[in-house]
Design brief:
There is one protein chain. The chain starts with a strand and ends in an 11-residue tail after the last helix. It has one domain: Alpha-Beta Barrel (TIM Barrel). Helix 3 runs parallel beside helix 4 and helix 8 crosses helix 9. The chain has 260 residues and is of the alpha/beta class.
């Protein structure tokens, strides 16, 4: 069984055929979906998906690309949700220093506050890290949390090793499908297998074979096959290992089957 550790099933892009897309993913071997919120407006949507589907778990967080619209009171809303609901993690949170117009100081303030909430509630975090790896590592050293995932990892080997030392797994997905993504493919091939989890980030980050299209939840099976090929190992072994890794970082995920 495969675990998609990062997918936005609540996105409007799935409104027309969400159940069909999920069924196709299940048929391809995906057994669990982790759906992180991006702002307080999405909290109810991700919670509803989790309530409707036994194989969906949700996380609550305020994404760095949404902090400009967020209010300080939204952090209180987040704290209230974490206190009353069984979320799997705090996320999607982090820093994005690539997209223009996002105030770095405001992003860092929201990140620090959400890391503190994760620590208080004993939850791992799901991190959005874009052009901000060292800055996020700085925050993680200041506020120790019980691990998490650096989603769509695209840093150096040294930065990867630092995340791993802090108890984090690294998320790999569609970027591995591009021959030109040499650094990501090298990391996927050489990092300790116990540090890697799989993700789609659907409907975002479409793979090489679907540029300009919606990324599909079922693509996770092909990402597992790419990772297996890069590492020269059976895809069944990759499925088992990455699923175990997901459970290790998200204890509330429970157990997963050993099959692909």
């Amino acid at each position: 069984m495969l675990v998609d550790t990062h997918i936005h099933l609540d996105a409007a892009e799935f409104d027309a055929d969400r159940e069909r897309a999920m069924a196709a993913a299940r048929a391809a071997g995906v057994g669990r979906f982790i759906v992180p919120a991006v702002d307080v407006a999405s909290f109810d949507r991700v919670a509803a998906l989790s309530a409707m589907h036994a194989d969906v778990q949700h996380a609550y967080g305020i994404h760095p690309m949404y902090v400009m619209q967020a209010r300080d009171a939204d952090l209180d809303v987040l704290e209230g949700r974490l206190a009353q609901d069984v979320a799997i993690a705090v996320g999607e949170i982090g820093l994005d220093f690539f997209v223009p117009g996002l105030d770095p100081a405001r992003q860092e303030r929201f990140l620090a506050a959400q890391l503190r909430l994760a620590r208080e509630h004993g939850l791992p975090v799901i991190l959005h890290v874009r052009r901000a790896v060292d800055q996020i590592l700085k925050h993680l050293r200041r506020v120790e949390v019980c691990g998490g995932i650096a989603h769509a990892f695209n840093g150096s080997r040294q930065q990867a090793d630092t995340f791993i030392a802090l108890g984090f797994k690294l998320g790999f997905g569609g970027a591995m499908s591009f021959d030109g993504s040499s650094r990501i493919r090298k990391l996927a091939a050489e990092l300790p297998l116990e540090s890697i989890v799989l993700e789609t980030d659907a409907p975002d980050i479409p793979p090489a074979w679907a540029q300009g299209q919606r990324n599909e939840p079922a693509n996770l099976a092909r990402f597992a096959a790419i990772l297996a090929d890069l590492r020269g190992m059976p895809v069944e072994e990759v499925a088992r290992a990455t699923s175990r890794n997901a459970v290790a970082v998200f204890p509330r995920l429970g157990t997963v089957a050993d099959g692909c």
